[in-house]
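Notebook entry, structure prediction.
Reason for the run: the old model in the group folder had no record of what sequence produced it. Starting over properly, with the input documented here first.
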Amino acid sequence: MIRFVSCALVALLAVLPQSARADAGFLHASPSLTVASPCSASATCAYSWTLASRMGHILRFVEALYGPRDRSWTLLGVEFTSEAAPQVWYPTFDGFGDSVIVQLTRSASTDETRALFQLSHEVVHLLSPAGPGAKASVLEEGLATLTSLQYLEAIGKGVSPSYISEPRYEAAYRSVSRLAKRPDFKTGIRSLRATRGGLSGLSPADMQRAWPGLSAREATVLARDF
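New structure, fully documented this time:
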């Protein structure tokens, strides 16, 4: 039976289009990310962590900081994509588009640190999903990047800001990390979500109302489309 399955798989790969055969590499994703193994009888867990359970844990982490997510959206889970960057995707079923999926990159499928860094970033976008085609602000992308670093630190897998690979994400992170030094940082984030429905599509004046005394320059940078 094992021999038959192996031969059948080889035959199937031989007739698949090149793009599909390339994606077959996802079969080799790290088991720690995708396979839930029963914990020992003496352990406090029932199963080992996977990306699915990690997403729930990250959501609790983020909601504790910035308030509950918008539950009018249905979270379908996490998957890997051949796209160059992680993202949130809004699939449509029978004309309804109230669902959202987190997509991580191919490189994250075998790198737990990268996977959790990307996942904790994208989970911030699940707090107030803007829907397909919407542009995130520097504030939202910077907050997502800051949260990635904070979450990895919280679970004992911390990395330094040098782990941020793209200059524009690093710039957004730097802008938000300066803002995060304010004692009213979290309440400002919660206020914007409650009064403006999210963290993108905002004006500099919105930023200054959330954080009184914020300079016009800083407010303009944070409100800018990423």
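Summary: The chain has one domain: 51-223.
The old model has been moved to the deprecated folder.
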